[in-house]
């Protein structure tokens, strides 16, 4: 009898140790709202994402907090608009002095306090700094395998992007070090081998999940893919296999990585105790034309405050907890941190958060706590403030501006030649009836629209009165000596920073 009681007690302790759910956050790069097959693209081959959408909760109205990489990733990991953390204007470069401030609390840091094992694989793009001081291992992640910035931020014209020897399309950035691959805080490759990169990432992710499950430890995996950012690349299994050319091959490889993660969760026996969340950092880079992704029926793309720049595909999956279906509730990457805190029992950081717990949306098919979404431009500033606001189904543009990142779109409003224009009264759109933001609602035609604009203005004033801009990390400047080099102190830089 005593032995039976001890056995039951031991079993219960083991259950308690693993009762906290696993969390897997999968982030695509520059993937447009209209790119996955499950979001309507007729020739994308994304069977794993399609399955995830069929078995999970697909969001129709999910937003990033920025329309370019670094600020959008900062918002996702901190639950705060990047204005607060100083991740503006623009993005980080290999020589950037700044990075995501170490006093910001990331999802990884929250979960480490709850005993989670944490790992990040892929694209960081939140700063490198002096001796790698801003790398993920200093931001709450136990392990890191990846590139500290965007894979077009280094010379790539002599690198192979598709086997057997297809050179990368485009020259990318010049005059900086070749792209390094890091394991934790050490460079293991320079330059990167693009055709073998994703299989290495997938293997890392698989082993991390299996090892954490074997130890009966809760885990957080942040898989931030480089796909489908330009220049596209893929390994042997996917090169030339899609109907969409190089971008389609890259998207197929990304989709396969989703499958690898799902299979690892099943093999580890933790699929039913893991929240899997997929989304993209920002809209597609339309200036790349057919190699730049697709925003679907949304207007413009990357770099703009039209919905094509910030409205993203998103899916949440947790078998037995999340009922399959589609939600039209308003949600954002800002909401991921509060949601993860809620399901893990973690305490929220004692700072101003801009996110809301999505538990009612995910688990009860309920309403969102979010009523508004605020859109800042790439060059955000205190002087101009918010460019656009979504309030319920309505969106008001106080300012509009094009972007070079959305150049070549048939819509000239998206182009870099479209200057900052102030709108008094703001341009008002009904995003349920007109998600393409084509038809301006006139207060002269229907006086109730004036009341809606007044409500939006009240929300904007209230929001901006509580917005405190952090010191700009980008304006701290550049120092070429900070660029990561596999041969510290070698000459001449940057040419010598490579394996021989």
Could you give the topology of this structure?
Layout: H1 2-18, E1 22-28, H2 47-55, E2 57-63, H3 69-78, H4 82-85, H5 107-112, E3 117-123, E4 143-147, E5 160-162, E6 166-167, E7 181-183, E8 186-189, H6 194-214, E9 219-224, H7 245-268, E10 274-280, H8 307-310, E11 311-317, E12 325-327, E13 331-332, H9 336-344, H10 359-364, E14 372-375, E15 388-391, E16 394-400, E17 421-430, H11 448-465
Parallel strand pairs: 1-9, 1-10, 2-12, 2-13, 3-4, 3-9
Antiparallel strand pairs: 2-11, 4-7, 5-6, 7-8, 10-11, 14-15, 15-16, 16-17
Helix pairs in contact: 6-7
List its salient traits:
500 residues; alpha/beta; Alkaline Phosphatase, subunit A; Arylsulfatase, C-terminal domain; 2 domains; eleven-stranded mixed beta sheet; four-stranded antiparallel beta sheet; 11 helices; globular; disordered N terminus
Please give a structural write-up:
There is one protein chain. By secondary structure, the chain is of the alpha/beta class. It folds into two domains: about 350 residues, Alkaline Phosphatase, subunit A (3-Layer(aba) Sandwich), CATH 3.40.720.10; about 100 residues, Arylsulfatase, C-terminal domain, CATH 3.30.1120.10. The strands form three sheets. Strands 1, 2, 3, 4, 7, 8, 9, 10, 11, 12 and 13 form an eleven-stranded mixed sheet that branches. It has a four-stranded antiparallel sheet with strand order 14-15-16-17, covered by helices on one side. A two-stranded antiparallel sheet has the order 5-6. Strand 5 and strand 6 form a beta hairpin. Helix 6 runs parallel beside helix 7. It is globular.
